[in-house]
Amino acid sequence: MTVAVETGTWQLDPAASTVAIRHRTFWGLVTVKGTFAAVTGNGEVRPDGSAVGTVTLDAASLDTKNAKRDEHLRGADFFDVANHPELTFAVRSAELRADDTVHIVGQLTARGISRPQSFTARLVGADADALTLDAEFSVDRDQFGLGWNQLGMIRGLTTVAATLRFTRTAAA
Questions:
Q1: DSSP assignment string, 105-151
Q2: Which among 56, 71, 135, 144 counts the fewest CB atoms within 10 Å?
Q3: According to CATH, what is the number of the domain 8-168?
Q4: Do residues 38 and 61 make contact, with C-beta atoms less than 8 angstroms apart?
Q5: CB neighbourhood size of 21 (10 A)
Q6: CB neighbours of 96 closer than 8 A, spacing ≥ 6?
Q7: What is the DSSP letter of 74?
Q8: Which pLDDT tens digits describe the chain residue by residue (172 residues)?
Q9: CA within 13 Å, CB half, 91
Q10: For 40, phi and psi rounded to 5 degrees?
Q11: Which of 3, 54, 23, 47 is nearest to 164 (CA)?
């Protein structure tokens, strides 16, 4: 499917995009899954084919289908949404490779702490007006001050899975 993605500005389509997390808890016996209901973003494809942009998640919009757990995740032990309402991923570079993968280098910010993050996404659909990326990568939540771990129940990495659809912004 290798295509050349059009230069210009692109806007994330929140209705066609999802960002979800999963983490093994209770000593690895249970996997907690959640989805962020509010995601926004934009990007720019430069004339050289590289891209930059930002994806922002409303931390309070995380839904794990358990209201009590969601409230705890919004509190000071985890996301601390009162002080840090957003999670952001700032794309510093995104390069399309010949095999329809996109090498992405950026900076993830949670709880006001920023760390470099890189991963490979798959370009699963692209035309002149829209493109869709699928990505999955792991995050060490301890690096972002999300280290609450009562009785050692929560260990290991959190997996982030995203399907992001961007639509081309009309030229001004």
A1: EEEEEETTEEEEEEEEEEEEEE-SSEEEEEEEEEE-GGGGT----GG
A2: 71
A3: 2.40.128.110
A4: yes
A5: 20
A6: 5, 49, 102, 123
A7: H
A8: 345 677 889 999 999 999 999 987 755 567 889 999 999 999 998 988 889 999 999 999 999 999 998 998 898 888 899 999 999 999 999 998 888 899 999 999 999 999 999 999 999 988 888 999 999 999 987 777 666 555 445 556 889 999 999 999 875 4
A9: 21
A10: -135, 165
A11: 54
> Six-digit token pair at 163?
């399907």
Q: What is the pLDDT of residue 141?
A: 76
Q: Which residues pair with 20 in a beta bridge?
A: 35, 161
Asked whether 120 and 94 are in contact (CB, 8 A), the reply is no
Q: Judge whether 63 and 79 are in contact, CB under 8 Å.
A: no
**Strands 18-25, 30-36: parallel, antiparallel or unpaired by DSSP?**
antiparallel
Identify which of 162, 172, 166 has the alpha carbon closest to the alpha carbon of residue 44: 166
CB 57 within 8 A of CB 20: no
Q: CA dist 74 to 38, 41, 82, 111, 124, Å?
A: 14, 22, 8, 11, 32
Sequence ranges of the domains in the chain: 8-168
Please tell me the pTM assigned to this model: 0.86
Other Cβ atoms less than 10 A from the Cβ of 127: the count is 10
Q: Count of alpha carbons within 13 Å of 49, Cβ hemisphere only?
A: 8
